[in-house]
Write a structure and sequence with these properties.
The protein is mainly beta. The protein is 0% helix and 49% strand. It has a 4-stranded antiparallel sheet, with no helix packed on it.
Length: 247
């Protein structure tokens, strides 16, 4: 069976051998703690984790199990991340970090919020990376060792998390952090402005703005080439890579 996730109301469907898929609609009427879902993650055991307006819950296909945190500063949680240990990590919209511990979630005191939310990521299955305005914060989850690395330039929200590295844009450069070393991956022939999203596509990159023409850029080598994607007056809320397609 192939699990399909549709986030417009959270439809969960199972692809059967027939022509028409069978699905169920999950809402507060059948146990979902909140109808506003900010992040969904399926772990390697098949459980669905849902970060929503009231916190976090786990769904096993039958029932929802809520996870609560005594120190949680905001009800809403987002950006679910899975570590190889089985722990689920997440953030609230103030930039605080939490992790699952048995049947609850615990605030991470070592990762202090700067007051703003920037999505972090886990690379190499065990290293949490958070890009800040002039540095990146790194936490090796098995040892709980934490450190910070400065980088030149100015902050950009264009961050791309791959399984084995994180890439981010700063001024006219793209930097790479592989869990140990921070290097300048590309020196570009022009500065990237108004960029909010960065996607790795093979050896190249695609960068996107939210609402500034031409909306897209292809980065091939050190060359930045504009790509006309839409007519004017479009707002790009999110960019994701699914297989070989950019959504």
């Amino acid at each position: 069976m192939h699990l399909l996730l549709l986030l417009s109301g959270l439809l969960i469907g199972f692809q059967l051998f027939g022509q028409d898929p069978v699905y169920s609609v999950l809402t507060t009427q059948n146990g979902l703690p909140g109808n506003t879902i900010y992040s969904v993650l399926q772990d390697d055991k098949g459980f669905l984790w849902l970060a929503h307006e009231r916190g976090l819950c786990r769904y096993d296909g039958v029932r929802f199990v809520p996870y609560k945190a005594n120190m949680q500063q905001g009800f809403s949680l987002s950006n679910l991340m899975a570590a190889s240990s089985g722990q689920i990590w997440m953030q609230d919209f103030s930039g605080n970090f939490y992790a699952t511990s048995k049947d609850s979630i615990v605030k991470e005191p070592g990762l202090v919020s700067g007051g703003t939310y920037v999505a972090a990521g886990i690379i190499n299955n065990h290293t949490l990376v958070s890009v800040k305005s002039d540095s990146i914060r790194v936490k090796h989850l098995p040892s709980r060792k934490q450190w910070s690395i400065k980088y030149p330039g100015s902050f950009s929200s264009a961050i791309c998390y791959e399984p084995d590295a994180v890439y981010f844009a700063s001024n006219n450069s793209i930097y790479k952090f592989d869990g140990q070393r921070l290097t300048r991956h590309l020196q570009l022939d022009q500065s990237l402005k108004n960029i909010f999203f960065l996607v790795k596509a093979g050896a190249d990159f695609l960068a996107f703005t939210k609402q500034v023409m031409p909306y897209g850029y292809r980065i091939k080598g050190n060359a930045v080439q504009p790509v006309q994607l839409f007519d004017n007056r479009v707002f790009v809320q999110e960019v994701s890579k699914v297989g070989n397609e950019i959504w």
